[in-house]
Design goal:
Chain A is of the alpha+beta class. In chain A, about 35% of the residues lie in helices and about 40% in strands. Chain A starts with a strand and ends in a 6-residue tail after the last strand. Chain B is about 50% helix and about 25% strand. The chains are: A alpha+beta, B alpha+beta.
Chain lengths: ~110, ~160
């Protein structure tokens, strides 16, 4: 599965449009991390626990999006976008969406 | 012994009301979501063959005409039972499935409303779809979620093939 955030895939030609695919997740870290983060707020610096939370959520959302694209028998997702929204304190929604397409290797005569 | 009755009454009120509320909201949650999912699936199946959705801006080699901007929105409220479970999940971490479902349901509902608008215009393709979580409606307590509000918009066009 090719996942890109550009409208076209360099060197490939989009031959079929499968439609919009999306994946989302709302995740929270455990209470220990929340407490550690509130301490970190006093001194500043990166909140590693929450960075990790975002990484996990993004992976999960992308995996769900790819699963949807596979169901539609697409081989690429173009124009991928991410959106986040905070749901409650310490939890964030991550949403990934893109267009599932069928792309083929571009040959010389197409140009 | 004499104040036995009032204390049981107090205990009943203290524990009974939240329990009743939890059970009641659990019941309504399942009733509301199952009917909503049924509606969503039905409408999505209906639109699957009729309208193509994409967030691409242009489609090389396709002839499009009659562009009109279409949009849809949905606001879905939080459920007491779901936020209660989410409160527990907060202690251990992990996915808050109730909230994930709430967000995706709101999104699907908004998309369907947009597609209905597009269909009324006689379009068969929606281009450049964008999603916006307008506000997470806050309840009286800032930390508590009241619900989710979603806006989706795109450009409906006709393909002349």
């Amino acid at each position: 599965m090719i996942v890109v955030n550009t409208e076209k895939i360099p060197g490939m030609k989009i031959v079929e449009l499968k439609g919009l695919v999306q994946g989302n997740t709302v995740r929270a870290k455990n209470v220990g991390r929340d407490i550690a983060a509130s301490f970190k707020n006093l001194v500043g610096g990166e909140l590693k626990g929450y960075t990790e939370l975002l990484v996990e959520s993004r992976r999960e959302a992308v995996a769900r999006m790819i699963a949807q694209a596979e169901e539609l028998q697409a081989n690429a997702i173009v124009n991928v976008r991410f959106a986040t929204s905070s749901i409650t304190a310490g939890a964030a929604e991550l949403y990934a969406y893109g267009t599932a397409v069928v792309a083929v290797e571009q040959t010389e005569e197409d140009d | 012994m004499e104040n036995g009755a009032p204390t049981t009454l107090a205990a009943l009120i203290n524990f009974g009301i939240p329990l009743l509320l939890l059970f009641g909201t659990w019941l309504t949650y399942h009733l509301i979501t199952s009917s909503r999912r049924k509606y969503l699936e039905e409408r999505e199946n209906y639109f699957r063959e009729r309208l193509i959705q994409t967030n691409l801006k242009e489609l090389p080699g396709w002839k499009c005409s009659h562009p009109v901007m279409v949009s849809g929105s949905a606001v879905i409220a939080n459920n007491y039972f779901v936020s209660f479970i989410a409160g527990f999940k907060h202690l251990f971490g992990g996915e808050l499935k109730g909230y994930t479902a709430m967000c995706s349901d709101a999104r699907r509902l908004a998309v369907i409303r947009m597609l209905e608008e597009a269909e009324a215009l006689g379009s068969n393709l929606v281009l450049n779809i964008r999603f916006q979580t307008a506000t997470i409606v806050s309840a009286n307590n800032q930390k508590q979620t009241g619900g989710v509000e979603l806006i989706v918009y795109g450009t409906a066009v006709r393909i002349d093939s």
